[in-house]
Amino acid sequence: MKLGLINSAWVQANQPTVFGLQKTKELGFDTVDIFIDPLDADVKERRLIKDECDRLDLPIVSICCVAVGLVDFNPSVQRFHVDRVKRYLDLVYEYEA
Fold first, then answer.
1. Which residue segment(s) compose the domain that 60 sits in?
2. Are the C-beta atoms of residues 67 and 83 closer than 8 Å to each other?
3. Fewest C-beta in 10 Å: which of 5, 19, 84, 97?
4. The total number of structural domains that make up the chain
């Protein structure tokens, strides 16, 4: 069994992403779950996370996605969230999660 931590634990503590990933590894966690919105994160931030996790040998096992609009009654809201979820899946592929 492997023990993992979600990176938002550090974000909520107002700590930078790299600091949080380093502390996650330092504390003995084996994996990390990434909470990031692909619509808000630029390429540089996405690469920073992947590169630092690779450097630390801290595998990304999941990407946390909130898309409650998938069940909205408004078709345009549904379409937006379907497109958003596709962006999450692209990020999962990019992170090899």
1. 4-95
2. no
3. 19
4. 1
